[in-house]
Design goal:
Layout: H1 14-47, E1 48-52, E2 67-71, E3 82-85, E4 95-102, E5 106-110, E6 115-118, E7 121-122, E8 144-145, E9 150-154, E10 172-173, E11 177-186, E12 192-193
Antiparallel strand pairs: 1-2, 2-11, 3-4, 3-11, 4-9, 5-6, 5-8, 6-7, 9-10, 11-12
Length: 195
């Protein structure tokens, strides 16, 4: 009579099973860590970056030392966006500013009333600053039309901001815009999405 052996009879000794299981677990953990690391590097190289705010030009909305996440994948600047600019005419370090107007739009500033006009309309900036604070004179004559491929930017803290009103920044070439600031992630007490 033929006797069939049970599956359990062919199992490996207990000690070998433990070693094989530990080695397999270690390999699986390493594989998961390497995959996660590659994903993080890809995301923060091509899709998002973390940038540190330096200076007072974007107060009260962004403080010096804030860390912001910047999205850069196929970004096209829009009025109202806060952007990171990697290079300007006279500055050799990145700056962070708000886009006021894009190519083809006309910008005018009434320094007596402290208001910015885009295409003849007074810009309502009440969502991010107090209206009527743009009173510092400019190095340029207004009105001016934003050339193709450029944007006009201003800091939210207008009295302390080097922006498109000054020769050291001027109109910003869109090729030098790293991306749009999306959220403050550090310090944790200031975590917020940027409007």
């Amino acid at each position: 009579m033929l006797a069939f052996r049970k599956k359990e009879d062919f199992s490996l000794p207990g000690e070998f099973k433990v070693k094989k299981s530990a080695a397999l677990n270690c390999f699986e953990w390493m594989e998961a860590l390497v995959t996660a690391l590659i994903a993080v590097v890809f995301i923060f190289t091509f899709l998002f970056r973390v940038v540190s705010v330096s200076g007072q030009s974007m107060e009260p909305n962004l403080q010096s030392g804030d860390r912001v996440v910047v999205s850069s994948y196929f970004y096209n600047p829009q009025p109202g966006d806060i952007v990171v600019i990697t290079r300007t005419v006279g500055l050799d370090q990145p700056i962070i500013k708000r886009v006021i107007a894009t190519e083809g739009q006309e910008v005018d500033i009434d320094f007596d009333k402290g208001v910015v006009l885009v295409d003849g309309e007074v810009l309502d900036e009440s969502a991010y600053i107090e209206n009527g604070i743009t009173t510092q004179r400019s190095d340029f004559e207004f009105p001016m039309t934003v050339p193709e491929g450029y944007v006009f930017v201003l800091g939210d803290n207008r009295p302390r901001s080097a922006d498109s009103r000054s020769r050291e920044v001027g109109m910003v070439d869109k090729r030098y815009i790293l991306g749009k600031a999306e959220m403050v992630i550090f310090p944790f007490s200031r975590f917020q999405f940027i409007a």
